[in-house]
Specification:
Elements (H helix, E strand, L loop, with lengths): L2 H6 L9 H18 L11 H7 L15 H10 L5
């Protein structure tokens, strides 16, 4: 599922294809919180974590890498999760 659609769809859209949507979100959040260097949570910072804890609503607090969804999609699809 394309990230731009996943992010933009209202919650009601999750009634259809919920498994795929939540699996993709879980993988995306794991990647952003743990693996992507500029959004990962560390002892010193947690830009994506901090944005989520602020309800993810304040666009001004959104980490810069999350503003270009097409680029985010390419990088997410290219990432190979550890096994």
């Amino acid at each position: 599922m394309p990230l731009h659609k996943l992010i933009a769809d209202p919650i009601a859209a999750y009634l259809s294809g919920a498994h795929e949507r939540f699996t993709t979100l879980g993988m995306l959040f794991t990647w952003l919180l743990r693996y992507r260097e500029d959004t990962a949570t560390s002892a010193d910072a947690g830009p994506f974590r901090d944005w989520l804890q602020g309800d993810g609503k304040a666009a001004s607090l959104r980490p810069a890498p999350l503003t270009d969804v097409a680029k985010l999609q390419r990088e997410f699809l290219a990432f190979e999760f550890p096994r």
